[in-house]
Amino acid sequence: MSTLLQPLSVSNRNRNLDILRGFALAGVLFMFCVSDNGPSYGYTNSLLDEIIAWPKYILIENRMYIMLIIIFGIGFHVQLEKAKQNNTSIVPVFTRRIIGLLILGFIHAVLISSRDILMFYGAAGFFLLPIRNLSSRKLLIVIGIVFAIMISSIVYILFGNAWPQIKSLVEPNNYPDYQQYNWQYFKVYHQMYGIYIEMLFHFLLGFWISKAGILKKINENKKFRKRLLITSLIVTAILIPFYFFILDDLYPVISKTLKFKWLIYSATRIFSILWYVMTTACVTLYATILISLASSEKGKKMVGPLAAFGQMALSNYLMQSLVLVPYFLLTNKFRTVSPTEGLLLFIVFFSLQLLFSTWWMKKYTMGPFEWVLRSFTYWKWQKIKRPTQNQFDDEKQLITVSVPQY
């Protein structure tokens, strides 16, 4: 077992990645509060509900999970480069990290919340190891193949679509029944094999973005970042109205006009491609805006709290479930939360998590669940307490000056 590969120190972290991760996780929390526990069919939205629901549907839904998954792929490349610099293998460390995610994900999914994504992270993440040494060009070919599989729906054709069965499951408002619900949901949901393909695609995309030097260019090249921001804004501005306001009326017309099934299938695939172009453009737009803000002193103060929130993303993600799921159960809120009530809940809980994250990261180098996962990953208890001012490090034989970033 190699002891050369160690976690990134606080000073070597990419702060912009933490900001992006924090922003995406805030969106995930927003969806959990505003949408995932929305009222059952039959509830009529108020005007305020509609004002909240439509931007959520158009600008947030799906985008935040995609951003998190892409960042995971970027992080894999960062770890891979570090392993190469240390002339050691990433395989043992990354394998243990994936296994740790699978264990945490299983516990989270079965005992706490059906919204778990960690199991998918772990399962899809294993596929990053076999392609880790591919060149950027070959990696693009693999991405193209995975994308073709993803939009072809061949996975659902071969293995079926479990979504109708998932939709038939109803979340109860008492814990014993809720745990049974989680187990049933877990068994059925993980038969949605297409989700693994989508996740792998975005993992690979993030890996390529970092490997090809695109992220570095976005961070360092202001002109390139501006061009990318404008391009993604134009693509988003064109495709969002098309997809959400035109396609619903256009698709039935196309289905009736086209006589051959292969033409209808081809049109559907084109719409699928446009969907992924739109979501990727949205994620790119959000990322370039945040990185642009973080490049100025005034912007740093504005988005700075997101860095601490994102640095302990795993802990914040799990704490959302650990706090909100019992709250929903005790107050009989599952499937009854209106968008307006969900927004208020999001504002309160997100504010508390921002304050807690900022306080925690001043005292510690990582979140509590990050500490558990990293200790398992590196097979060694990690130091979590931030060193005091001018503390002497016995291992490195140097003086560490503690300067919290947040």
Structure keywords:
single chain; 406 residues; mainly alpha; two-stranded antiparallel ribbon; 17 helices; globular; disordered C terminus
What does this structure look like?
The chain has one domain. 73% of the residues lie in helices and 1% in strands. It is built from 17 helices and 2 strands. The chain has a two-stranded antiparallel ribbon with strand order 1-2.
Order of adjacent strands in the largest pleated sheet = 1-2
Total domain count: 1
Largest sheet: 2 strands, antiparallel
Number of DSSP-assigned strands: 2
Round the mean pLDDT to the nearest integer and report it. Answer: 88
Q: What's the shape?
A: globular
What proportion of the residues form beta strands (DSSP E)? under 5%
**What is the succession of H and E elements?**
HHHHHHHHHHHHHHHHHEE
> Rg from C-alpha positions?
22 Å
Into which percent range does the helicity of residues fall? Answer: over 70%
List the helices and strands and how they pair.
Elements: H1 15-36, H2 47-60, H3 63-85, H4 91-112, H5 118-125, H6 136-152, H7 154-159, H8 163-168, H9 175-189, H10 193-211, H11 214-220, H12 222-257, H13 261-294, H14 297-311, H15 313-330, H16 339-363, H17 368-377, E1 391-393, E2 398-400
Can you summarize this structure?
With 406 residues, this protein is mostly helical.
